[in-house]
Amino acid sequence: MLQWPVCALASTRRAARLLTQLYDSHLTVYGIEAGQFALLMMLDAIADRGQTALANMLGMDKTTLSRNLKVVKQRGWVESEAGTDARRRELKLTAEGRAMLESARPGWRRAQDSLKRALGEPDWAAMMNTMETVARAALKAGEKNGSGKT
């Protein structure tokens, strides 16, 4: 095993890159990248579809989310419309976006199942729990030093 410096950021970024490669290998045949699929899946799942809420759910700053949204909007998968408050725009999947999400879901499932098999059920459950715990801790640590961003 490679010896890495003890750094939470370096370790999680490495894992994130490798996971992205795994999911991309299963999703690119459908014409979608892992990050785009995750964005469509989140839009399909959450009730509050405002850009700030979506950024918070994905752990992204609004500028990064805007760049990612630009791509999926250009592909015709997402559109924005006026919300109940005139100052707010709501994001939603288009018919094409919903069709892409549904057609690519088997690739996502294969990637997910492949990782789950490689980890085994106990480590899968532990990983999912740990990732949520790490995300909450990072938010808390960011708030304490005043750098918490949304």
Structure report:
With 150 residues, the protein is mainly alpha-helical. The protein has a domain at 14-109: Arc Repressor Mutant, subunit A. It is built from 6 helices and 2 strands, in the order ααααββαα. Strands 1-2 form a two-stranded antiparallel ribbon. It is globular and about 50 Å long.
Count every beta strand, where a strand is a DSSP E run of 2 or more residues. 2
**Structural class, from helix and strand content?**
mainly alpha
- Put simply, the count of helices is 6
Name the helicity range.
55-70%
Q: What strand line-up does the widest sheet have? A: 1-2
Mean pLDDT: 90
Q: Tell me what portion of residues adopts beta-strand conformation.
A: 5-15%
**What is the C-level CATH assignment of the domain at 14-109?**
Mainly Alpha
How far do the termini sit from each other? 36 Å
Order of helices and strands: HHHHEEHH
Uncertain segments = none
Largest sheet composition: 2 strands, antiparallel
The backbone outline, from C-alpha atoms, is globular
Could you outline the blueprint of secondary structure elements for this entry?
Elements: H1 8-27, H2 34-45, H3 51-58, H4 62-74, E1 78-82, E2 89-93, H5 95-119, H6 121-144
Antiparallel strand pairs: 1-2
Primary descriptors:
150 residues; mainly alpha; Arc Repressor Mutant, subunit A; two-stranded antiparallel sheet; 6 helices; 2 strands; 68% helix
Structure, briefly:
The protein has 150 residues and is mainly alpha-helical. Helices cover 68% and strands 7% of the residues.
